[in-house]
Specification:
Helix content is 41%, strand content 13%. It is an alpha/beta fold. The longest helix has 32 residues, at 222-253. The protein is elongated, with a radius of gyration of 25 Å. The structure holds uridine-5'-diphosphate-xylopyranose and adenosine-5'-diphosphate.
């Protein structure tokens, strides 16, 4: 039986961020017959997406430059003209930020939906004819209802009876992980489409069918789709808190968390993935989504369930602060005035994203203790670190005169460095916080010769070769290592 569906020729995506940009680039790449316009109110971001120099794309994501090169200017465009793009689109994706609310009702837990609401109002105002509106951003369960109510207000014909407008709302959460976004989009485990209108569902499915096998396209009702995204992230985050809890236990019992992970991961019911202990999870989704889940559970009168999920976040916060405390303890109980090389500021490797990065809490705790931090990350720019640490940056102490040293203290005593070598020079300790590939093959003999002795290496990602570090004469602490 042939399924009914509205033909999709033009797509608009509101939000050119970490989700909207790569997702639309891959759809455009795979569906050359569909014209896609990604719009954003942030002019700088759009200019960066349009930049000839692919190094200037606003997001660093392996493989993204190739996809953008193939599609941009052909059927992929980036623009700030939101109204125009909405008015000509058959389908509008909403892919805007939904951070945790900072004040008011649900502050600290609920998602701030003001950007989603603004998008719905813009669509209500500018859309023409029949428009399928797709929620791409991660949203609390039943947000589609809010979007539908706003759109309904625009559904009646206005002065011109020919100006009949209709809308359908679908949920199509994105499961891509940063750093592997292109691979995840090109070969997804599943594509989830939630909705009540089978015509609209099949229209969206027809886009994905261009490259995703039919059996991986799951259709559910709206609320299951919205809740599945929150639940997937909550389960993944819970796994990390579980392995980090076990890591702490390994450290005091003589077990090794990697051996334990391998042993339990060999059980096919558990599986090997997502069992690396580290400095705690970061990223824009996990914490935000769990807090949102906590809020929803409380809202629906399920405080015990809320507490269960809250503890996943509590343990994650504890892990981040535990690492900073541990560094202080190993450095004879004080880091005041000591130089620490902090390697890695992104929340994971292969991204320039620092949202909720564990490095932020670890750095802040160490600064609070009076440490001087030389920070190196291959992709994160100085300006971003400044914003995250909410302090002015400073240049290297070597470059400063004595009179400026007091300023350095006031500024929080951290400075960005251009490479590992510069970061470790004169340091008492190296703290590895992101698992960048280049940190796996460092020349520890050379590093040891440039550090102040006795020098420590704190490897929160277990990326270094312990034998190489120890035989270079350095003291080593590795997460979850009972024999360190
Ligand atoms: C996550 C989900 O994986 C993705 O499906 C969803 O769409 C968005 O949120 P992302 O935040 O980009 O993606 O990265 P992810 O690879 O999930 O890592 C999240 C955090 O967990 C990182 O800080 C990472 O370092 C940490 N992590 C991950 C671990 O500490 N150990 C692991 O074994 C895996
Ligand atoms: P995500 O990680 O979910 O993609 P980002 O913060 O990286 O989130 O990107 C969201 C983007 O959405 C931002 O670039 C922001 O400027 C854009 N945005 C938010 N609201 C609107 C709006 N009403 N119209 C156009 N762009 C918007």
């Amino acid at each position: 039986m042939t399924q009914l569906r509205t033909e999709i020729n033009k797509v608009c995506c509101i939000g050119a961020g970490y989700v909207g940009g790569p997702t639309m680039a891959v759809i455009a790449d795979r569906c050359p017959d569909i014209q896609i316009t990604v719009v954003d109110m942030n002019e700088k971001r759009i200019a960066a997406w349009n930049s000839e120099n692919l190094e200037e794309l606003p997001i660093y994501e392996p493989g993204l430059d190739e996809v953008v090169t193939r599609a941009r200017g052909r059927n992929l465009n980036f623009s700030t003209d939101v109204e125009e793009a909405i008015s000509t689109a058959d389908m509008v994706f909403i892919s805007v930020n939904t951070p945790t609310k900072r004040k008011g009702l649900g502050s600290g837990q609920a998602s701030d939906l003001r950007w989603v609401e603004a998008c719905a109002r813009q669509v209500a105002q500018c859309a023409k004819g029949h428009t399928i509106v797709v929620e791409k951003s991660t949203l609390p369960v039943r947000t589609a209802e809010v979007i539908e109510v706003i759109l309904q207000s625009a559904q009646q014909p206005k002065t011109d009876p020919k100006d009949v407008r209709s809308f359908v709302v679908l949920s199509n959460p994105e499961f891509l992980a940063e750093g592997t976004a292109i691979r995840d989009l090109e070969c997804p485990d599943r594509v989830l489409i939630g909705g009540e209108d089978s015509d609209a569902i099949e229209s969206l499915a027809s886009i994905y069918k261009q490259w995703v096998p039919e059996e991986r396209i799951l259709r559910t009702n709206l609320w299951s789709s919205e809740l599945s995204k929150l639940t997937a992230n909550a389960f993944l985050a819970q796994r990390i808190s579980s392995i980090n809890a076990v890591a702490a236990l390994c450290e005091v019992t003589g077990a090794d968390v990697r051996e334990v992970a391998r042993a339990i991961g060999s059980d096919s019911r558990i599986g090997q993935k997502f069992l690396s202990s580290g400095p705690g999870f970061g990223g824009s989704c996990f914490k935000k989504d769990i807090l949102n889940l906590v809020y929803l559970c409380n809202h629906f009168g399920l405080p015990e369930v809320a507490k269960y999920w809250q503890d996943v976040v509590t343990l994650n916060d504890w892990q981040q602060h535990r690492i900073a405390k541990l560094v202080v303890k190993k450095l004879f109980g004080t880091v005041s005035g000591k130089r620490i090389a902090l390697l890695g500021f992104a929340f994971k490797a292969d991204t320039n994203d620092t949202r909720e990065s564990p490095s932020i809490n670890v750095a802040k705790d160490l600064l609070e203790e009076g440490a001087q931090l030389a920070i190196y990350d291959p992709r994160v720019i100085e300006k971003q670190i400044c914003v995250d640490l909410q302090r002015q940056s400073s240049t290297s102490p070597e470059a400063k005169s004595d009179s400026s040293k007091s300023t350095l203290k006031e500024e929080g005593a951290w400075w960005p460095t251009k490479d590992v070598r510069e970061a470790i020079s004169g340091a008492d300790a190296v703290v590895i916080l992101t698992e960048w590939r280049e940190f796996k093959h460092l020349n520890w003999i050379e590093i040891e010769s440039k550090m102040r002795q006795p020098a420590w290496v704190f490897d929160t990602r277990a990326v270094v070769d312990p034998i190489a570090v120890k035989s270079a004469g350095l003291k080593l602490w590795r997460v979850g290592d009972g024999v360190a």
